From TrEMBL:
UniProt keyword annotation of Signal present: yes
UniProt feature coiled coil, ranges: none
GO BP: any one term: amino acid transport
Species, as recorded: Vogesella indigofera (Pseudomonas indigofera)
Top-level taxon of the source organism: Bacteria
Name this protein carries in UniProt: Branched-chain amino acid transport system substrate-binding protein
Length: 397
């Protein structure tokens, strides 16, 4: 037989065999199990992942990741289909302009919900885009009252606001610390300035006097000029509205100038990073948290164990809150049997959930009900609670 003809016959046979073998594979694909047809539900997580607030942002993002991983382990189904939650993490750099760019990317990606943003200055402008797109947004750390004063029905927070913090801090400063002459500094951000305004107003209402009001920025490192100006007013307490990255150097420069006034901040100061930056000059400082102390959070111990095992690190501040925020979204989806915001959004407002941080339910404007504020004092490089938490902002807290 002609060898060339033999090769042609063999090639034809191989081609026929390949075609025959392909048919069962196509049939197998057509009958793939339902698991291969799972629906991916995207959850946006927006935080500063670079820059001076990255330690806060990574912590908050970890809380979202952990909640999503636990939900995936449950093998949930929605509307008859198995679902898998995918967290899309974006770096908003705590910058309002970048935050709106992140928000648009989330909208374009078709996320079912957004947990964040970390800061008020980033969250408020971003929230407008989520509202226009009908995407549910739950914040675990945004404390500016303006966040829920916009009238959006898709915007929620699971933490107390700055009005509550300002009132609690001012009352403690005037009535407990007996500080009557008080100076106020803020970083001109939505968070810092709003908090300082609320604190100053509450201080005067409690009988104190604001002897000096000064301003800086959230990237400043030299505060000597404004502190020199304040020193001449002989304040008994200096309040700072801003974050730990500036508060640490600020208190060190206070002591260098011989200012002995008590130093006080809010949740932006209540961190291990502040204690590290301030060193011994931070001893005796006061700060608040817009929530219960970790000792009184009903689920903190178990959550802390899981967090350390998963991320091999310590909780900074907001991971318990973003974890709970993510659980709120997923719980609402379960009750609505859908990951479509149009279908599950109404269930978010009806939430009644026992979270790591405490009971979670919402006011009609999206604020958490019975928001708690706790006060702390820095002792031996550690923050220790000094006042019993209370849900009433007019209480001593």
């Amino acid at each position: 037989m002609n060898p060339y003809r033999l090769s042609a016959i063999a090639a034809a046979a191989l081609t026929l065999a390949a075609c025959n073998n392909a048919e069962p594979q196509q049939d197998a694909a057509a009958s793939a199990p339902a698991a291969a047809q799972e629906h991916v539900v995207k959850i946006g997580s927006a935080n500063p992942l670079t820059g001076p607030f990255a330690h806060w942002g990574r912590d908050a993002d970890n809380g979202v990741q952990l909640a999503a991983e636990e939900a995936n382990a449950e093998k949930l189904t929605l509307d008859g289909k198995p679902v898998r939650f995918e967290v899309i993490s974006e770096d908003d750099q705590a910058d309002p302009k970048v935050a709106t760019q992140v928000a648009q990317r989330f909208v374009d990606a078709g996320v079912a919900a957004v947990i964040g943003h970390l800061t008020s200055g980033a969250a408020i402008p971003a929230s407008r885009l989520y509202n226009d797109a009908g995407i549910t947004m739950i914040a675990g750390s945004v404390t500016s009252p303006k966040f829920t004063e916009q009238g959006y029905n898709n915007t929620f927070r699971i933490i107390a606001n700055d009005l509550q913090q300002g009132q609690a801090l001012a009352k403690y400063a005037v009535t407990e610390l007996k500080s009557k002459r008080i100076a106020v500094i803020d970083d001109r951000t939505t968070y810092g300035q709003g908090l300082a305004d609320d604190f100053a107003k509450a201080t005067e209402a409690a009988g104190g006097t604001i002897v000096k009001r000064e301003y800086t920025t959230n990237s400043a490192t030299d505060f000597m000029a404004i502190l020199t100006s304040i020193k001449g007013e002989k304040p008994e307490l200096i309040f700072y509205g801003g974050m730990d990255a500036q508060a640490g150097p600020l208190v060190k420069q206070m002591r260098k100038l011989g200012i002995t006034a008590v130093f006080m901040g809010a949740d932006g100061v209540n961190t291990a990073e502040f204690a590290k930056l301030a060193g011994k000059d931070g001893e005796g400082a006061y700060a608040s948290s817009a929530g219960a102390s970790k000792e009184l959070m009903p689920g903190y111990t178990a959550f802390n164990t899981k967090y350390k095992a998963r991320f091999n690190g310590e909780i900074q501040a907001y991971a318990p809150y973003t974890y709970d925020a993510t659980r709120v979204v997923i719980d609402a989806m379960k009750r609505a049997n859908s990951a479509d915001p149009k279908k599950y959004l109404a269930e978010v407002g009806k939430t009644s959930l026992q979270g790591v941080t405490g009971p979670i339910a919402f006011e009609s404007n999206g604020d958490i009900k019975n928001g708690t504020v706790t006060l702390y004092r820095l002792e031996g490089g550690k923050w220790a609670g000094v006042a019993k938490p209370a849900s009433d902002a007019s209480a001593a807290q």
